[in-house]
Amino acid sequence: MLLHTLNSSPQSVAARDCCALLTGEDTVILFGDGVYAGLEGAAISQMLRDSGAAIFALAPDVDAAGIGTKLAAGISLIDYPEFVAISAQYPRQMAWY
């Protein structure tokens, strides 16, 4: 059980490595440039969803990117307090930049 925070472009090596290591017991939070990994139709979005991990995107970053209506199904929006609450549930975290 691991929390992955993805802050890099979906085209980055870090994003692909993150997807390769995900399990169904993990959680992913997309923020910064990482929110683009949640776009409907993006290959990496499908990889994230196929992992079985819980996937969240930071709402302020999604709004700033202007992609709120373009996120794939199954990706839940969260705010900063929810980001902190989710982070507090995981003793281990992997940050992907």
Helix-strand layout with pairing:
Blueprint: E1 3-6, H1 13-21, E2 27-30, H2 43-50, E3 54-58, H3 59-65, E4 75-78, H4 80-88, E5 93-96
Parallel strand pairs: 1-2, 1-5, 2-3, 3-4
Description:
Helices cover 34% and strands 22% of the residues. With 97 residues, the chain is α/β, with parallel strands linked by helices. The longest helix has 9 residues, at 13-21. The radius of gyration is 12 Å and the shape is globular. 33% of the residues are buried.
| Secondary structure tally, helices | 4
Mean pLDDT value:
97
The N- to C-terminal Cα distance equals 20 Å
Radius of gyration, Cα only, in angstroms?
12 Å
- Label the overall shape: globular
Runs in which pLDDT lies below 50 for 5 or more consecutive residues are none
Number of strands: 5
Q: Sheet with the most strands?
A: 5 strands, parallel
Estimate the helix proportion, in percent. Answer: 25-40%
Q: What proportion of the residues form beta strands (DSSP E)?
A: 15-25%
Report the order of strands and helices. Answer: EHEHEHEHE
Reading side by side through the largest sheet, how are the strands ordered?
4-3-2-1-5
Quick recap of the structure?
The protein is α/β, with parallel strands linked by helices and 97 residues long. The chain has helices at residues 13-21, 43-50, 59-65, 80-88; strands at 3-6, 27-30, 54-58, 75-78, 93-96.
